[in-house]
Amino acid sequence: MKKINKVLLLLLAILAIACNSEPTLQKYYVDHQNDDNFVLIDVPSSLFIGDNSAVSEEDKKVIASIKKANVLALPINESNQELFTQEKAVMETILKDEKYKVLMKFGSSNRSVKVMYLGEEQAIDEVIVYASDNTKGFAVARLLGDNMNFSAIMKLMKSATNGDLDLNLGAFQNFGSEIEKKSGNKRKNDTISIKLNDTL
User: Fold this and answer.
1) In angstroms, rounded to a whole number, what is the distance separating the alpha carbons of residues 74 and 80?
2) Which terminus, N or C, of the chain has the lesser number of Cβ atoms within 10 Å?
3) Is a pLDDT exceeding 90 seen at residue 97?
4) Cα–Cα distance between 191 and 183 in angstroms, integer?
5) Burial code of 80-96, b = ≥16 C-beta within 10 A, e = fewer?
6) Is residue 55 within 8 Å of residue 99, measured between CB atoms?
């Protein structure tokens, strides 16, 4: 009987490991951070959020809940079309997991954008924006924090759009140039551009 119990415990342990080996967004980031086909940027909030002492107390609480932003992108070039198709399929399989709750999605047959989150609407741990374009590539942006409130974040985004929020976009200055370099595309309209020293 003891031998049977040991075998059962071993089988349960193997099953648990197998279940936990499913791909996750975090694991995907880690697995591709040194892949030359990808562009990765990982920025603490202290580097891209400037001096916001003049904003409301509510906005200050939201800002304090944001810990960092990271973006992983796979730009398309002449030599990686097949890789793009494979990796896009992997990414979309990961994001189909029910734990990634979809807030909104829009686009067409060739390009799409999805906004998702992890956690509860009043206590979000991660906001995810997935954008894919069959001619340019795909990118996944993650805004990470502790108990972020979705409504409050949307309000903060509106403040940023109105120019009321001090953002240091210089922290992302190398990202656009890296995408341009790896896509091999020098045309201005086909690259992601970031206005430095500007606010949203």
Assistant:
1) 9
2) N
3) yes
4) 9
5) beeebeebbeebeebbe
6) no
Long-range contacts of the stretch 95-104 (C-beta < 8 A, 24+): 95/25, 95/128, 95/130, 100/25, 100/128, 103/150
CB of 42 closer than 8 Å to CB of 8: no
Please report, for residues 112, 114, 133, the alpha-carbon distance to residue 108 in angstroms, rounded to integers and kept in the order given: 6, 12, 9
Contact 84, 38 (CB under 8 A): no
Number of Cβ within a 10 Å radius of residue 164: 16
Helix (H, G, I), strand (E, B) or coil at 197: coil
| Closest of 112, 136, 141, 139 to residue 191, by C-alpha | 136
The residue with tokens 């997991």 is 97
* Greatest pairwise CA separation for the chain in angstroms: 71
Q: Which of 77, 188, 185, 193 is nearest to 137 (CA)?
A: 77
Tens-place pLDDT, residues 45-84: 766 666 666 667 777 777 778 888 888 999 999 899 999 9
Q: What confidence tens digit (pLDDT) does each residue in 30-46 have?
A: 999 899 999 888 877 76
Q: What is the mean pLDDT of the chain?
A: 74
Is beta strand 111-120 parallel, antiparallel or unpaired with respect to 123-133?
antiparallel
